[in-house]
């Protein structure tokens, strides 16, 4: 029966928690480690972000100071927001974070295809991520197979969104590394920046992997 409390269900929970926990621990350890290492340029993350925008010839993008933990590019306002540690920081972590977010601004300016696909999926995912579990529970309680099938289809859309996110994140980090190489950062600092970006990318990989496992388990149970 779908969602039966079987051994496979508990194994799924344990595996996904382990994957998520390991990814979170690793990224936090790398961010903290390199946040204590000063960048040789002496520039803040905000300075580096503006420099990278200029390097790629991107105009009209505002670099904003956000709340703690707010590091993102918003295509709706065409702006890069950096948390206080990234905006004011003069560390490897601050530089790598700022360059990564500008990498997204570059993608947007160039019409990067995976970013367009990801953006097109946002409305669907916003609906699906909030509705799939409710539909699944209703299908189980009311014993309506159509609802459980619809729930799984909606969850599959969430998984697709996470998969499309991977090349977007990897490419933004690649562009960040190209810029950091162009300004002749010492090799040790480039290596540290790569470690930070790789750790952050791992969180997206972990999220996609756990979602795929969840979807596969749901499909297996649906056939039973």
Walk me through the structure.
- Helices cover 75% and strands 5% of the residues.
- It is mainly alpha-helical and 224 residues long.
- It starts with 6 loop residues before the first helix and ends with a helix.
Tags for this model:
3-stranded mixed β-sheet, 7 helices, 3 strands, 224 residues, elongated, mainly alpha
The succession of helices and strands, N to C, reads: HHEEEHHHHH
Number of strands: 3
The main β sheet shows up as: 3 strands, mixed
Radius of gyration, whole Å: 20 Å
Quaternary organisation of the protein chains: single chain
Helical content (DSSP H or I, runs of 4+): over 70%
Instruction: Measure the end-to-end span.
Output: 6 Å
Structural class: mainly alpha
Number of helices: 7
Strand order of the largest sheet: 1-3-2
> What's the shape?
elongated
Blueprint of the fold:
Blueprint (H helix, E strand, L loop, with lengths): L6 H29 L9 H11 L6 E4 L6 E3 L4 E4 L1 H5 L3 H19 L2 H30 L2 H38 L4 H37 L1
Parallel strand pairs: 1-3
Antiparallel strand pairs: 2-3
Brief summary of the model shown:
The chain has 224 residues and is mainly alpha-helical.
């Amino acid at each position: 029966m779908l969602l039966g409390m079987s051994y496979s269900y508990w194994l799924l929970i344990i595996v996904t928690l382990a994957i998520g926990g390991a990814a979170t621990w690793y990224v936090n350890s790398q961010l903290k480690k390199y946040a204590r290492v000063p960048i040789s340029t002496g520039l803040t993350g905000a300075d580096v972000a503006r420099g990278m925008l200029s390097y790629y010839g991107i105009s009209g993008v505002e670099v904003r100071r956000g709340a703690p933990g707010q590091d993102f590019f918003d295509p709706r306002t065409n702006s890069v927001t950096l948390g206080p540690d990234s905006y004011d920081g003069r560390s490897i972590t601050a530089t790598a974070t700022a360059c990564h977010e500008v990498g997204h601004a570059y993608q947007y300016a160039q019409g990067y295809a995976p970013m367009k696909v990801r953006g097109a999926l946002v409305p669907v995912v916003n609906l699906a991520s909030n509705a799939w579990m409710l539909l699944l529970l209703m299908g189980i309680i009311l014993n309506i197979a159509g609802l459980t099938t619809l729930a799984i289809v909606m969850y599959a859309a969430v998984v697709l969104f996470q998969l499309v996110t991977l090349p977007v994140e990897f490419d933004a980090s690649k562009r960040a590394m190209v810029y950091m190489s162009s300004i002749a950062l010492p090799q040790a600092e480039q290596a540290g920046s790569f470690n930070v970006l790789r750790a952050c990318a791992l969180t997206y990989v972990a999220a996609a992997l756990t979602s795929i496992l969840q979807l596969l388990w749901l499909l297996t149970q649906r056939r039973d």
